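In line with agreed milestones, the collection of sequences with tokenised folds has grown. One record among many is set out beneath this paragraph:
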Amino acid sequence: FWVVPAVEVKIEVVIPEKERSKEEMSPNGKASPLIYKVNGTARHYHLEEHPIASNPYHNPKDVVEASVCHVKDLENGQMREVDLGCGKALLIKESGEFHAVGHKCPHYGAPLVKGVLSKGRVRCPWHGACFNIGTGDIEDFPGLDSLPRFQVKIEKEKVYIRASKQALQTQRRTKMMAKCISLSNYNLSSTNVLIIGAGAAGLVCAETLRQEGFSDRIVMCTMDRHLPYDRPKLSKSMDSHPEQIALRPKEFFCTYDIEVLTEMQVAAVDVKSKIAVFKDGFKMEYNKLLIATGNTPKTLSCKGKEMENVFNIRMPEDANRVVKLATSKNVVIVGASFLGMEVAAYLAERAHSVSLVELEHVPFKKFFGEKVGRAVMKMFENNRVKFYMQTEVSELREQEGKLKEVVLKSGKVLRADVCVVGVGAVPATGFLKQSGINIDSKGFIVVNKMMQTNIPGVFAAGDAVTFPLALRNNKKVNVPHWQMAHMHGRIAALNMLAHGTEISTVPYLWTAMFGKSIRYAGHGEGFDDVVIQGDLDELKFVAFYTKSDEVVAVASINYDPIVSKVAEVLAAGRTIRKRDVDAVVFLSFRTGDMSWLTGKGS
């Protein structure tokens, strides 16, 4: 904190060691141990201790300070991207106070100045991640890192920012985490927290535990051969190698004592004895369990489904192999799912031909509605993708052991060197059938708002669960979104530590095809009408999905940041009625007026 004359603003990066809350600090400035009960026994765990320096910068030469504007240049509720010479910061004024944080979203680098400011946080315009403007901490996902926070000072009616050059360059900050205090003393077949699955939910759970100061053993296990990676890129950026899409480097897991067992499949869970049994016979005891196994792609049931060059894209190697084999060849994609459509878009310029087979008459009809689906379909047709709708595959034919033709039930025969199957997925929960964990008729694990199953100490998260969605009056839903998996993992971790935190996030997803991004927020299952503003033919529109006169979801192309703005409205507990749609578009998109975000009710 700077003691300065009134009215000049400066910003200074606050390093993670200085960001501990008062509750975590003892009077002498050292970390106070926190207590976590393991098997009924109180154990202590604490954050890594660092000396608290009077100057938060290790190297004064790394500091830059600049005057960025006059105090009257920003009104309350406004944001401005400001240049400090060696990097930029996001300057924000809310409730009469100035704040400064990193200007790019750490997820994919979106400019946050184009995002949504509401009630002390800024929401990314691209994928909906939210950051606290006072601390820079990430509050909603996707992404793992927080924003760097800078110090602001006002002098003589000028706003100054003081910042670390390094933070201005990286535009991200990893929260301080604990380490395991006595890893060498553990039995290899026993862990405090076992996480089955190493996707977004599993990784965020492990990181959250460490961020909250948990210093006991954490083991993640996965059938995959890789450390956690950015799975959406498997269909959006198919030639990406595992190390290019890794969510964290190997060193990260070593530093924070998060053990990852790769190519390890759990075959059964004994919840009474608290033991996970692996396929190879290895057994591991646990105290707390998170099941985040995701889903398993459906396969074709027709003749020839097992032949070479027929792919379900599950791992980076699958995507890489498809790109290599498809170049200048004939590709058939079965299923106009998100994966199928993204793969078709990615291969359209690389393959000789791309054909897409789908049982429905319009892609995405159940999700985006017929009008939006037709607009997307037209975009694909303009990019040389040929659709074969209202039919399915009856046979795959080979020549010398390799795929040659795809035969449709309509009688059409398609030339095919490669076939990609994207006909949906089922929850990967078969190993739990005899466990006593509550599984619904579709195979999803049933959890409450705290991601708890019916078995004490057993949590579940991600694509394999159904949970109460606050947005839809706590209806039990399955939301297989990347963003939602992150939040599930965080909520599960907090409740392993008995925080009593309930999930209340608004679902947010995106897809990218031919340079166009479709953004979507809410949960539109069962919508009965679609109100469209803009031009579908020009692919510049926003679609509001309504059920019984209430907006339950929104989608857009080239209409940023309206989806993020509506997400903030829904997150605040407000109801948007069908009659309000025109006003919502006008106030949010054309005037930038955010006053309609405040308050409850319609």
In short: Residues 310-423 form a domain with the FAD/NAD(P)-binding domain fold (CATH 3.50.50.60). The first helix runs from residue 165 to 170.
